[in-house]
Amino acid sequence: MLKIGLEREFFVQNLLGKIVILSAQKDISDDNIWPVDGGGLLLEDRGEPSTNVYQAVFSLRGRIRELIDQISQRPIHRATTDHADDEWIVRADLSHIPKTNSTMDAVRRVAYKGPVKYRNLYSHTNHRKRNLLYAGTHITFSDPQFRSFQSDLTISITKGCTCKRCTNRSPETVNSLFDFHLLFKLLDAEFSTEIREAQRNIGFYELKDDGLVEYRSLPNTVPIMRLAEGLTRVLTLYNKG
What is the pLDDT of residues 182-228, one digit of tens each? Predict the structure, then answer.
């Protein structure tokens, strides 16, 4: 059974409406409370993975609610200004912002993650407008299977091999292959309106090193209940083959 993990990114702005790059605020002692995306600009939060859609979705909702409360209760120094006033900051419900030179320069100073090696089912190379920066909702899928290596061990003993590789292998969980192309096409169809309205393109995904597959076309503006209901429909269709 597929396990689902959800992540939502979002921009943060101050009361003046300007984007705040939290990872650039090195002068606050509790800077590590902010789960900043490796790209350097976005905040991100993740729910607990689950085989149950509603558990996965509402786990994400709870984490986001907790983070928003943290943000709304804390002033943060705006290091990008010429004065040292503290500004209260709020979450920005935006799926994209203009890509400016000053924003990109700030991102480059604090980013620790290289370019995402994303792929696309339909050969899109970018979202619809290259002059925008996007925040998204990412859905990670995996098919974990518990594998026993008893058969390998039996063969090794028969051949007389006593090396650690053959005799000390423990049962483990591995992520099995599944038809993620079909799954992602169903997601593209289910959320086509939200993707189009956010000026994004369908079909974006990333293959993770640990066998996870991440769908990356959804904007961060998809309501939580819409996400849960849409995912439920998609998985019902997927399981029917």
Answer: 999 999 999 999 999 989 999 999 998 777 899 999 999 899 999 99
Please name the residue ranges forming H helices in 116-223: 150-159, 164-167, 180-190, 192-197
- For tokens 């990670």, the residue is 140
Angle at Cα 233 formed by Cα 228 and Cα 239, nearest 5°? 120
- Kindly report the CA angle at 189 between 185 and 194, in degrees rounded to 5? 125
For residue 171, the 8-state DSSP code is P
pTM (whole model) above 0.90: no
Cα–Cα distances (Å) from 185 to 14, 62, 94, 105, in that order, read 38, 28, 25, 36
C-beta neighbour count of 95 within 10 angstroms = 26
In this structure, are strands 3-14 and 86-92 parallel, antiparallel, or unpaired? antiparallel
Q: Rounded distance, CA 19 to CA 51, Å?
A: 36
